[in-house]
Specification:
By secondary structure, this protein is an alpha+beta fold. A three-stranded antiparallel sheet has the order 1-2-3. Helix 1 runs antiparallel to helix 4. The two termini are 37 Å apart. The mean pLDDT is 85.
């Protein structure tokens, strides 16, 4: 690990651990997003909007943010399989979990993080404090403080891994009409 004029060795190690945990979570979450985009592309292709419209589909799907992508995936599935009420309901539940995880991801990557202060022995408790500056129209500038342990970030990563499995199952169900989406999403991970 690099020496620093500003941080002690335990502080550097704590920072490295924090950044690695955030990185694992963000990369795992992006794999979920990739599967959702793939499912939307497959629905367009299976609906007869194949290669002649593929560049348009790729452009539209590439420009859509994650919040809009979850809305798009749900709306597209309801059009794609309009008679599959159980599948749409199961998908809605998964998409809500993805949306919640998106908010957690945004808190992680758009916050200014500081580490706890060294204890008497010079060790650092691996807890990070986030300060998020929000602008509420009625209240003006607000500051939200959040403490986050590595174990919490690891829980986010574990949830993202589960949601990736569900997103893959969503793609498979779209790609294979005989696979019930409700059954696929109802299987435990």
């Amino acid at each position: 690990m690099e020496d620093s004029a500003f941080y002690t060795a335990p502080e550097l190690e704590a920072r490295r651990s924090l950044h690695e945990a955030i990185g694992r979570f963000v990369v795992t979450f992006e794999l979920v997003v990739t599967e959702l985009r793939s499912a939307c592309r497959l629905m367009l292709e299976r609906s007869g909007l194949g290669l002649k419209n593929q560049p348009l589909a790729n452009i539209v799907l590439a420009q859509v943010g994650v919040a809009e992508l979850t809305d798009l995936a749900e709306a597209m599935y309801r059009e794609f399989r309009s008679d599959d009420y159980e599948g749409a309901r199961a998908l809605e539940s998964i998409l809500k979990r993805i949306d919640m995880l998106r908010r957690n991801r945004n808190d992680l990557i758009h916050s200014a993080w500081t580490l706890g202060l060294p204890d008497a022995q010079g060790g650092i408790e691996k807890i990070a404090h986030s300060f998020t500056f929000k602008r509420d129209r009625k209240k003006g500038q607000t500051v939200r403080k959040m403490a986050l342990r590595l174990a919490k970030i690891d829980k986010f990563t574990a949830e993202a891994k589960k949601l990736q499995v569900y997103a893959i199952r969503f793609c498979q169900s779209v790609n294979q009409p005989d696979l019930s989406l409700a059954d696929q999403l109802g299987k435990p991970v």
